[in-house]
């Protein structure tokens, strides 16, 4: 049977030790079978277990193999499209409910880390950096918008102030969110998996779901076994493939790449990011970066539509890093990897139910560390019969990509080129 390892990332190299987890052999029965052990699956499992459900997770590779174990580690609040866009799309009542939830994911992460004593280098403080006055104007209205929903740990920064928190001369200002922050993403997933097991949940690794038998008593088929369950949660996100064809039509896997420098040493690291905040800029195709606990710089950016793996990641990302920090020109890159996130046309999450008992949440389009933790809670509530918050997400409209499966990649790349050109020209 296939044994899919982690990609050769900094995170895999610095992962906390974990017990071996067997593949599923034979037939088992449970209340909820979850497909995928990323944050969506693990967060759902934890909320369900805490509420008395029996849970089994089948994971095609290893816990945190997907985006959850490869991401920039940035705890970013709200959604990939903000609450004002949601308001224009679905009206004030539903937007009010979604707005109230927009800052919950970050709180869930902090609660989990504290409750289960998860060692994942959690740090507070995230910066949104503006490169143009238009972006600064957007941050000003974002602050007003977020404050309307009770989120008030925010500080607007002018050019002088942002220079105190990040040694990059390109920014004209920014916004600091002290309830943002950063984590070692794989160690967060591994800690959550250990918490799942401590509550009696079972995780089968190297166990892809190859078919879902739908009906009143659904069954998840795997290469050497099957899971009979009352409910199924599909949490495979960008790595799901075509297991659930109706989901694939309205979403597109995209790759984004990350590099990690050699350790910079305390002094150099402190000159780049003196308070150890994480940073993302406000471009459509954004750059994001932060320090690790051993004082390396992790830098990510760029999007490959259709999720083809680029041949030379360092050649794509290093120039972006040097544009932000020319002082790193002699620094060696120790790790480079790619990971897939799932894009929807609206850039809002795709949430819903198929029949009575198959639930899904996916497609948070790049900003998913906080949303996926919230999604687990909202899915668990729905399975317990409290579906008001689930329905607010499920009511978000979704559309197939223009050009269908054949042309969605070039069409989206043209769209992204247009938006990045607007960013570069500052309008
Ligand atoms: C490189 C990168 C950087 C990012 N940086 C950030 C960031 O800094 N901040 C932020 O907020 N968001 C970021 N994101 C997005 C964020 O990581 C994701 O939104 C989030 O982790 C998605 O979690 P998930 O559990 O839904 O999916 P995943 O973590 O991708 O998990 C899905 C899991 O399902 C498994 N699976 C798939 N199909 C099957 C099957 N048939 N059977 C069994 N298992 C299956 C996969 O193996 C995988 O482990 C980034 C994403 C990437 C790729």
Let me know the number of strands: 17
Shape: globular
CATH architecture of the largest domain: 3-Layer(bba) Sandwich
Give the names of the bound compounds.
Answer: flavin-adenine dinucleotide
CATH superfamily of the largest domain: FAD/NAD(P)-binding domain
CATH class of the largest domain: Alpha Beta
Radius of gyration: 21 Å
Q: How many structural domains does the protein architecture include?
A: 2
Discrete helix count:
14
Secondary-structure blueprint:
Blueprint: H1 10-13, E1 26-35, H2 39-50, E2 55-58, E3 74-75, H3 83-90, H4 92-101, H5 104-115, E4 123-130, H6 133-148, E5 154-158, H7 159-165, E6 173-182, H8 185-198, E7 202-204, E8 211-213, E9 219-222, E10 225-234, H9 245-248, E11 252-261, H10 266-272, E12 278-281, E13 287-291, E14 297-305, H11 313-324, E15 333-343, E16 350-354, E17 358-362, H12 369-383, H13 388-394, H14 404-425
Parallel strand pairs: 1-2, 1-10, 2-7, 4-12, 10-17
Antiparallel strand pairs: 3-6, 4-6, 5-6, 8-9, 9-10, 11-14, 11-15, 12-13, 13-14, 16-17
Helix pairs in contact: 2-8, 2-12, 3-4, 5-12
The protein binds flavin-adenine dinucleotide.
GO molecular function, one term: oxidoreductase activity
Keywords: Oxidoreductase
Domain FAD dependent oxidoreductase: 31-381
């Amino acid at each position: 049977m296939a044994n899919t390892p982690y990609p050769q990332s900094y995170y895999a190299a610095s992962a906390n030790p974990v017990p071996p987890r067997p593949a599923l052999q034979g037939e088992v029965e449970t209340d909820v079978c979850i497909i995928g052990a990323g944050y969506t699956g693990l967060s759902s499992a934890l909320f369900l277990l805490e509420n008395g459900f029996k849970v089994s997770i089948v994971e095609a590779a290893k816990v945190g193999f997907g985006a959850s174990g490869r991401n920039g580690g940035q705890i970013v609040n709200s959604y990939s499209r903000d609450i004002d866009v949601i308001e224009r799309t679905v009206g004030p009542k539903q937007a009010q409910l979604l707005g109230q939830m927009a800052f919950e994911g970050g709180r869930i992460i902090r609660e989990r880390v504290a409750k289960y004593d998860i060692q994942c280098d959690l740090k507070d403080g995230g910066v949104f950096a503006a490169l143009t006055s238009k972006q600064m104007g957007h941050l000003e209205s974002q602050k007003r918008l977020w404050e309307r929903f009770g989120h008030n740990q925010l500080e607007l920064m002018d050019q002088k102030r942002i220079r105190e928190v990040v040694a990059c001369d390109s920014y004209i200002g920014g916004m600091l969110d002290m309830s943002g922050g950063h984590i070692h993403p794989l160690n967060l997933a591994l800690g959550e998996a250990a918490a799942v097991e401590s509550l009696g949940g079972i995780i089968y690794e190297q166990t892809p779901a190859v078919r879902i038998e739908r009906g009143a008593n659904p069954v998840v088929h795997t290469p050497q076994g099957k899971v009979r369950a009352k409910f199924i949660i599909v949490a495979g996100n960008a790595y799901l493939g075509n297991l659930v064809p109706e989901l694939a039509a309205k979403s597109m896997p995209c790759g984004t790449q990350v590099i990690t420098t050699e350790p910079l040493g305390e002094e150099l690291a402190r000159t780049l990011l003196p308070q150890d905040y994480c940073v993302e800029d406000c471009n459509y195709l954004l750059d994001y970066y932060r320090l690790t606990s051993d004082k390396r710089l992790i830098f990510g950016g760029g999007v490959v539509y259709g999720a083809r793996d680029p041949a030379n990641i360092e050649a794509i990302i290093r120039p972006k890093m040097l544009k932000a920090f020319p002082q790193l020109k002699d620094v060696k890159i120790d790790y480079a990897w790619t990971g897939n996130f799932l894009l929807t046309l609206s850039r809002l999450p795709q949430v819903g139910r198929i029949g009575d008992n198959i639930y899904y949440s996916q497609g948070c389009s790049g900003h998913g560390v906080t949303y996926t933790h919230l999604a687990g809670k909202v899915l668990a509530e729905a399975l317990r019969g409290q579906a008001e918050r689930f329905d607010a997400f499920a009511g978000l409209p979704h559309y197939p990509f223009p050009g269908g499966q054949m042309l969605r990649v070039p069409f989206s790349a043209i769209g992204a080129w247009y938006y990045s050109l607007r960013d570069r020209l500052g309008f």
